Amino acid sequence: xxxxxxxxxxxxxxxxxxxxxxxxxxxxxxxxxxxxxxxxxxxxxxxxxxxxxxxxxxxxxxxxxxxxxxxxxxxxxxxxxxxxxxxxxxxxxxxxxxxxxxxxxxxxxxxxxxxxxxxxxxxxxxxxxxxxxxxxxxxxxxxxxxxxxxxxxxxxxxxxxxxxxxxxxxxxxxxxxxxxxxxxxxxxxxxxxxxxxxxxxxxxxxxxxxxxxxxxxxxxxxxxxxxxxxxxxxxxxxxxxxxxxxxxxxxxxxxxxxxxxxxxxxxxxxxxxxxxxxxxxxxxxxxxxxxxxxxxxxxxxxxxxxxxxxxxxxxxxxxxx
Amino acid sequence: xxxxxxxxxxxxxxxxxxxxxxxxxxxxxxxxxxxxxxxxxxxxxxxxxxxxxxxxxxxxxxxxxxxxxxxxxxxxxxxxxxxxxxxxxxxx
Lengths: 321, 92
Description:
The complex is a heterodimer of chains A (321) and B (92).
Chain A: E1 2-11, E2 17-26, E3 36-39, E4 42-44, E5 50-52, E6 54-57, E7 60-62, E8 68-70, E9 73-74, E10 84-89, E11 97-100, E12 103-104, E13 113-118, E14 121-124, E15 127-129, E16 133-137, E17 146-152, E18 155-157, E19 180-185, E20 188-193, E21 196-201, E22 229-230, E23 233-238, E24 246-251, E25 254-257, E26 260-264, E27 273-276, E28 279-280, E29 290-294, E30 304-305, E31 308-309, E32 318-320
Parallel strand pairs in A: 3-6, 4-7, 5-8, 6-9, 7-10, 8-11, 9-12, 10-13, 11-14, 12-15, 13-16, 14-17, 15-18, 16-19, 17-20, 18-21, 19-23, 20-24, 21-25, 23-26, 24-27, 25-28, 26-29, 27-30, 28-31, 29-32
Antiparallel strand pairs in A: 1-2, 21-22
Chain B: E1 5-10, E2 23-31, E3 36-45, E4 51-60, E5 65-70, E6 77-81, E7 85-91
Antiparallel strand pairs in B: 1-2, 2-7, 3-4, 6-7
């Protein structure tokens, strides 16, 4: 994080001053941050551990409570062969994990890397890019229960696209990663606020974009942003093990890209939550674009409200199905 | 003379997080509590008690100047200022 303060001083002719200040920050590490190198994967199993100022060539797995990871860079490793997060919070014992002011991007992008995965964490003011998904939310030990996740003030962008992808063998004509800035798979109690979510894939991190000829072919395909490719979604809400996610609080984000920027699975949501006061760019995939797509049964104008075009301030349309 | 009244708000809601390259907008509202308008009334009366008057309005102003500084070194450039609201921008 780079935290800065802007100060306004008002002075009258006699020199009487008044001052106000406003703080702001940029996600990720502070410019020029001095980090201590650490080589190898880390497993954090001591409650209350604080990792501060590390440059980690490996991944971090948290298996306990009240861990804080701040001002760190996490690079991953080149030997991964299964889906994982640069920071894993998937262990059943994880509670109250805080990840803040970090740069999460793999040195060697692959179809296996995500940024942060799991449950019971707060990730805030982080720069996450070069991964397939930025943040994955789920709790395999309790798919229907609360996941207690807060995703606040992050910049998630430049996702990594690969093809083929053994996670999606049913794709036609070619399997490929389904990139999302944030993917929710079950669980309740999820706040997503004040983030910048750029739902696009970058050829700098995933070299296979040109293989998706249906979407990435600038000469005739749908992708008007070639060689950049829209991700699947900026925020994707899925069911997991038949459990319906809920208690969503998606607010005050700047969101762009994706086929549907905010996309939800078909389901009957007993407690969907709200999508409020988000601003949207207009760069969704142009074949079937949507800003927000929700089942008609859960659409509630009082809970999905205040969402506007960033360029004009006018309300965005909500797709229902 | 009283100190000026000033308030500033960034265009990104709290927490104010901007990505590099974004343009941030700072809106400053300000006023001078000493500024006021008054009227002088001059009444002329003759020996018979006939009266006539004129009024003259005037205002007291204590102009307020604004200075914007940023401890990150970014320069905020004034875009508009109508005497009560000023808008500044910078590239993050």
